[in-house]
Amino acid sequence: MEQISSVAIVGRTEDTINYETAARQLSIPYFTTLNTEEASGATHLLLPGGGDITPAFFGQSNHGSHNIDTELDLLQFQALDAFITSGKPVLGICKGLQLINVCFGGTITQDIDTADRHKWIGKDQSHYVYHSDLSRADFFYQLYGGCTLVNSAHHQAVERTGKDLIPVCRAGDNVIEGLMHRTLPIIAVQWHPERILKSGGDRLLQYFLSLTAS
């Protein structure tokens, strides 16, 4: 019997309201948890946005990171490790993209030079992101073609890309805005699709739900 898809959102409930609202609007079965064993029972893992990753996880001291929650980082890394081992689909959003990058050995720029174009200013900013994978076989090109307008609320970004992760789109200032794994059903974006459902966010979330274990 085929298992019904369910998405585990691993985060603190006070910070996951937008993701839960989007899931309900798109009729996506979900649950929010900090229990990694419970999360591993889901078919899909969503790593949401939030504060910054503890810099020690990518071998740096703190020189620009804010709103650090090391306990949450550990739980999210544990959930991600379990889904990597099982080959089940993962979507990282904003901080979630950075967690995936770090998990595969990448690093983070703790305060990018162009943060004023990307960071939260009491509301999302917006900018275009452009396809950057020559194969055109990635999720970004399938969903959006050569470019799309996205929202933005971050001041950090991928520095060194993790092993087997492919940048699929970038902003005009070359900040990596989307990643996918070469062989695993793992995708990630730097923007917040849950906050722009009517402007293409719904396509990304539904595509994620369509992914199956490798």
Write structural notes for this entry.
With 214 residues, the chain is an alpha/beta fold. The chain has one domain: 3-Layer(aba) Sandwich (Rossmann fold), CATH 3.40.50.880. Helix content is 28%, strand content 23%. The protein has seven helices and eleven strands. The chain has helices spanning 17-25, 36-39, 70-86, 95-103, 115-118, 139-144, 201-210, and strands spanning 7-10, 30-33, 44-47, 90-93, 108-109, 125-131, 147-152, 157-158, 165-171, 176-181, 186-189. A nine-stranded mixed sheet has the order 2-1-3-4-11-10-9-6-7, sandwiched between helices. The longest helix is centred in the middle third of the chain and has 17 residues, at 70-86. The chain is globular and about 45 Å long.
